[in-house]
Amino acid sequence: MSRQPRIAYPGAFYHVYSRGNQKQRIFFSDEDRGFFLKILRDAHERFSAMWHLLCLMENHYHLGLETPKANLSQIMHFVNSAYSIYLNTKHERCGHIFQGRFKAILVQTGLYARTLTKYIHANPVRKGIVAKPEDFEWSSCRVYFGLRQAPAWLSTKTIMACFEGNASALRKEHEDYLASPEDLSFREQLRSAASVGILGDDDFVDKLRRSFLKEALEANDDELGGLRRLRIRPELGRIADEIHRELGDKNKLARKCAIYFARHYAGYKLKEIGEFYGIGPAAVSIAFHAIESTVAANEVLKGAFERIKERLTWIIHESTRLPDARPEG
Question: Fewer CB atoms inside 10 Å of the end CB: C or N, the chain?
Fold first, then answer.
């Protein structure tokens, strides 16, 4: 099985998590958790690690980490190694503390970091440890709820910005999140993201593929694994150009075909297509359905679309789930 890709660049935001070897405990006391927090502080001071979120469960942890210096591996090697030495020394034992190397999902800030915050803080509630997320002492929830002052190494600016700086809204959304199916939905989304190491929308993935992943893709890097199966969308303008090239500029169906292609093959949203063509989502939907039956019955159009896909070096998305790559709790 291929390993998760490590996508690193200055300012990258990650959901980092690791669990105990064979799901065994990694925290046995408050003293252990307190020492782990000291390691996070040291990582902040030594490597400029910016910690935004945390939740220290018995056999695993969740962290929200930003890396101004693009040094994710250096930071997490320090954290896990320092804690392993501490725990082995304290309990006079040897061997691995953590199960494999740490997992890290590159997260698009904004909506995704917003939901990730609620997901991480909800861990102790899902496990039945506490009734409310703020009742759990070893997470960042109390800081964001205004019940505890943030330590110098814990940054809250980015996460608060995801909630428009509104602490009351943040708290209310935590309550709503735990009372709705959104929690289960996001957990499934996160499990899927774990197989490729990225959590974000299509545009976010596209930008990564065209920038930080471009050389690795061209070099057939074996560590990319499931990332190869992620969809990379051509720009709407490129789709329109290819449609006109294939059908001719004077073809009356060209615009509707471009809309159909963008929606059916590229997965663009009605709003995105509408903004490109200067029309509303309803008009896009009408255009899409107007041409849909025509395409289904027209082998010439089908052939044209296939040629366009080839020219755009299209990569079809295949949903994958790797059971051993899913985050704990």
Answer: N
Structural contact between residues 128 and 137, judged by C-beta atoms closer than 8 angstroms? no
CB-facing half-sphere around the CA of 186: CA atoms within 13 A: 20
Q: How many structural domains does the chain have? A: 2
pLDDT digits (tens, 9 = 90+) for 294-305: 888 888 888 888
Residue 238: which region, alpha, beta or left (left: phi > 0; alpha: psi -120 to 50)?
alpha
**Spatial separation of the C-alpha atoms in residues 207 and 9, rounded to whole Å:** 13
In a domain, 1, yes or no: no
Q: What is the model's pTM?
A: 0.71
Q: How confident is the model at residue 214 (pLDDT cuts 50, 70, 90)?
A: low
- Together in a domain, 204 and 305: no
Residues 6+ apart with CB under 8 A from 140: 52, 53, 54, 55, 64, 120, 121, 154
pLDDT for position 265: 77
Residues 240 and 187 in one domain: no
Quickly state the pLDDT bin for 70 (edges 50, 70, 90): very high
CB-CB contact of 52 with 158 (8 Å)? yes
- Enclosing domain of residue 98: 12-228
pLDDT value at position 96? 86
Asked if 108 and 197 touch (Cβ cutoff 8 Å), the reply is no
Per-residue pLDDT, 232: 59
Sole residue written with tokens 């980092």: 16
3-state percent breakdown (helix, strand, coil) of the chain, nearest 5: 55, 10, 35
Among left, alpha and beta (phi > 0; psi -120 to 50; other), residue 283 is alpha
* β-bridge mates for residue 110, sequence order: none
Q: What is the C-alpha radius of gyration for the chain, rounded to an integer number of angstroms? A: 23
Kindly state the helix (H) or strand (E) to which residue 19 belongs, with its residue range. Answer: strand 12-19
Record the tokens describing residue 111, joined without a space. 């909506």
Distance, first Cα to last Cα, the chain:
23
